[in-house]
Amino acid sequence: MQQSERKAFAKINLSLNIFPERGPRGYYKVRFVNTSISLHDQVKIKKARAPGIKIDEPTIEESENLAGRAARLMFETFELGGGLEISIEKRIPSRAGLGGGSSDAAAVINGIIELYGLSVSIDERIKLASGLGMDVCYCIVGGLCVVEGIGDMVKRLPWNPPTLDLLIATPEEKKPSTEWAYSILEEDGLGREYSRLEALLEGLRQSDTRSIAENLYNDFEKFVFNHYPVAADLKRRMLELGAINSILAGSGLSVFGVFKEPHIQEQARMALRQEGFWCETARPVE
Fold this sequence. Notes:
Helix 1 (66-78) links the parallel strand 3 (52-56) and strand 4. This protein has helices at residues 66-78, 100-116, 122-129, 134-141, 178-183, 195-206, 209-214, 221-227, 229-240, 262-274; strands at residues 3-22, 28-48, 52-56, 83-89, 145-148, 153-156, 165-170, 217-218, 245-248, 255-259, 278-282, 284-285. The model has no long low-confidence stretch (mean pLDDT 94). The two termini are 25 Å apart. By secondary structure, the chain is α+β, with helices and mostly antiparallel strands. The chain has two domains: 3-156, 2-Layer Sandwich (Ribosomal Protein S5, domain 2); 165-285, GHMP kinase, C-terminal domain (Alpha-Beta Plaits). Strands 1, 2, 3, 4, 5, 6, 8 and 12 form an eight-stranded mixed β-sheet that branches. It has a four-stranded antiparallel β-sheet with strand order 9-10-7-11, covered by helices on one side.
C-alpha cells in the first residue's frame, strides 16, 4: 500500500463534566460523553521516496500542527524509513472546540498504521495519542463514547449514535487555546451537574431525542461565556431560531444546537450565516 485516505471527523461533547480533583499529572479528572459528527477534514497520507515528512496544511501554524507531530511520533516510535507526504483538506474550523486538529492527528496515526501494516492495539494507540493531547485519545476510537480519567480512558457505548439534526456555528473570534480554557476554570463551580449525565445516558439508550437535548451539559460554558460574550449570544440566537437546546462545543467558541424540524434547522443556518457566523449542519456518525 502506497497511500491511505481517511475522513477525520469532528467531535462534540454531549456531556462535559470536569471535577475539582486532579490526576497525577496535574490534569483535572473528567467524564465526557462524546460523539463523532459528519463534519470532517480529509486526510491523505502517501509514502514518498525522499526522506522526511512533508505536511501540506497551509492554514495551521507549525507549532499547532498536531498531524505533523503525530507523524513524527510514529516514525520515531516504530523507526520507519523513507518519507511521507500528508495533505489535509480542512473543513472543521480550527480552535473552535470541535476537535479538528485532534481528529487530523488521530487520522494520521491510524493511517500510518494501515499504510505500513503495523500491528498496534487500540490501547497502544491511545497511549501514543496521550502524548499529543487528550482529545486525540478519543479521536483514535471515535463514535459514541464515554471518556474518563484525564481524558485517556475511552470506552465505546453499546448503542448507535443518536439521530440528531445538529447546527454548528462558529464566531470569527478564536480563544487562545484549550489550555487557556482550563486555566480560567474555578474549582468550586465544577462537577455540580453530574446527575444530568445519567439522564443523558438513558436518553441515548432509548434514542430519545428530546431527553438527549434537554440533558446536554458543558462545564466550560459559564467560564468561557464570561470571557467571550459572543459565544453566549450565539447560544441565545440558536435558541431564538428554534433549537430544542444549544450548548458550547467543547472549550469553544463554537456552539451547536439540536433541531426537531429540518426546515427550522435550515432557516436557522441561513439566518446565522447572514449574521456573519460560519455555520454548517451535521449529524452524529459511527
